Amino acid sequence: MVDLNYDNFGIIRKITKEEANMPKNWLSFINSEKNLNYMEKFGVIAILKALQAYGGPTKAALVKEKASEYPFFTDQDREKKSSNGQSQLEFRLQWAMSNLKKAGLLHSPQWGVWALTQMGEDVNTNNFDVWDDVYSISTPIWQKNRLNNQKKKDEILEYSNINVASLDADIIEETDDSELWRDQLLQRLTEMNPYKFEELIVNLMRKIGIKMDTTSKSGDSGIDGIGYLRTPELMTYKIVLQTKRFTKGAVTGPDISNFAGTINGHNADRGIFVTTSTYTNDAISRSRQGANLITLVDGDELVDLLFEHRMGISEKAVVVINEKMFPKD
Fold it and tell me: Where does the pLDDT of residue 66 fall: very low under 50, low under 70, confident under 90, or very high at 90 and above?
């Protein structure tokens, strides 16, 4: 549970219907006493403080890592996982970043990188209210986007014979966000055909610079790829790859130990383990033992790598208007 003793930011403040023009379920979440709600609101403060500490554009993963270290959050908050193995705190921090962006305090100079706007740099967290300064601005934008998306769906249905059940697969909601797309992509990865997923990761390894081939589907001891990496120093390493398309749970220590044995069996120098999930602390510890070190790639880093090498991902420019700067009254 977050430490509410740090609440100087209106975290537990209740918002009335008159203050907020939003769907009933949204208002219910804003006013809920659930830890997820508090985590996101404290996340707003933590993200601001993290970016202030870095002093310039910073990769999203580093921002969230720094934000999670602030004492608003307990060790239990940091360790809590959802059913798909994703960190609940990390997920709430992503939403916090998205709301900060819509409030005009953050911007993304490039995908996967965040920076404070001038308004964000001018923020004094000692005199800050998460509703007045963030959610009262971001919520109407979310609501407007939701209505626009619904209107777009209605128009397509009116003038076409598209099946309603398949419409969401063809119309991707435009969240104009530089982080929420990550969850959509990770979900797609967990739903992939397992053999196609293996091929995707092997092709990613090739783009990174490892000359890798897929292995046969039988008798490969769980190995999905074998390749060779030549360094600028003219050193060549034999690499073996294993992938796990997990939808629930994290990769465990025994999983890594089994893979380490397979590395030795193939006379390889290094191993790379890729999952759509996360790793237990025991798994991380075992990956660093022995002569043949294992590189662990979790779902979050996998998304980063796919974006970096533009595999199935493209980006577009989006303009966001901060309505607070242009008051009607």
Answer: very high
Strands 236-244 and 294-297: unpaired
The CA radius of gyration of the chain, in Å to the nearest whole number, is 22
Residues 6 or more apart whose Cβ sits within 8 Å of residue 187: none
Residue 160 vs residues 11, 82, 154, 185, 281: alpha-carbon distances, Å? 46, 38, 10, 28, 52
Which range, of 24-33, 218-227, 247-256, averages the lowest pLDDT? 218-227
Q: How many CB atoms lie within 10 A of CB 150?
A: 11
> Residue 155 and residue 150: Cα distance in Å, rounded?
9
Residue 29 carries which side chain, given as an amino acid letter? F
Contact 36, 89 (CB under 8 A): no
Q: Is the pLDDT of residue 78 over 80?
A: yes
Instruction: Record the tokens describing residue 263, joined without a space.
Output: 């590395």
Average pLDDT of the residues in 243-253: 86
The residue type found at 229 is L
More confident residue, 81 or 202: 202
Report the run of H or E that residue 113 belongs to, with start and end: strand 113-116
CA end-to-end span of the chain, whole Å?
41
Output the pTM of the full model. Answer: 0.62
**Measuring CA to CA, which residue among 70, 50, 71, 53 is closest to residue 61?**
50
pLDDT digits (tens, 9 = 90+) for 175-234: 445 556 777 888 888 888 888 899 999 999 999 999 998 887 655 567 899 999 998 998
Both structure tokens of 318: 């989006």
Query: Could you tell me if 259 and 232 are in contact, meaning their C-beta atoms sit under 8 angstroms apart?
Result: no
pLDDT grade for 324, boundaries at 50, 70 and 90:
low
Amino acid letter for position 27:
L
The rounded distance, in Å, linking the Cα atoms of 128 and 7 is 11
Measure the CA–CA gap between 251 and 278, rounded to whole angstroms.
6
HSE-CB of 9 using CA atoms within 13 angstroms: 27
Three-class DSSP labels, 247-277: CCCCECHHHHHHHHHHHHHCCCCEEEEEECC
